[in-house]
Amino acid sequence: MPELPEVETTLQGIRPHLEGRVLRGVDVREARLRWPVSEALYALKDCPVLGLKRRAKYLLIQLAEGQLLIHLGMSGTLRVVEAGTPLRKHDHVDLRLDDGKVLRFNDPRRFGTVLFQAGAADHPLLEKLGPEPLGDDFTGERLFDRSRGRKVAVKSFIMDNATVVGVGNIYAQESLFLAGIHPSRAAGRVSRERYDRLAEAIKAVLAKAIEAGGTTLRDFTRADGQPGYFAQSLRVYGRAGQPCIQCKTVLKADRHGQRSTSYCPQCQR
DNA sequence: CACCTTTCCTGGTGGC
DNA sequence: TGCCACCAGGAAAGGT
Question: Which of A 104-123 have CB under 7 A of nucleic chain C?
Fold first, then answer.
């Protein structure tokens, strides 16, 4: 599952292949993604690529005509291949470049998106996004201010993209453990001091994950076995029923908005 | 084979 | 009563 670190890694991986190139055209084999692939993409022809950016989990490819938005959803991947490379199952969209290479979007579950926003304005999907977790405008103070009076579980609160972007299920659980906060606690009933700790925990976990090259949990659990960053660092995620690494209390499992949550009932209050 | 995954949207509710 | 903010739940699809 691509979390923010994986998206960042993908961006860095494709950037050298796209910067300075010209987008010759777009081939769409399957337009039924999370939203239909933007019709306007079909008409794009010979567009110089001006730059690449990441915003939350969106990859943005900037053209003079507008902006391409790519979201990997749950199962999306981007690869740079030579033109003519045989198609695999679920290879839905190709961006053809002027050097004979192709940026190929593959997504079995089709929760991803490939959209186009004409002109200079931001796409509506980007308008309501909160700050980047690693930016200076994401602070404990902001979490505190925005949470007053809110009854929603603090875990759901920090996973809300309007609060801060890019905090997925794994990072939310790990950050709450590091900060010693019970995931079910009402967001409005967490003190300023504890939100300071939580903001720092979120930054630390994400920064380390990006540093590790965005390797995901599932990659570690696959058979090739190389123990990586998360395998060693995960303190609560997926460990319900096992002892807390700090106090040996058996970790509990809970559920917030359809998502599983593990936590230590002793260390997290 | 039911479950699990992300994100946005919808509909219901409660407060003012 | 009317409106808005808030929050829970639903939907998409396929691999495991």
Answer: 108-111
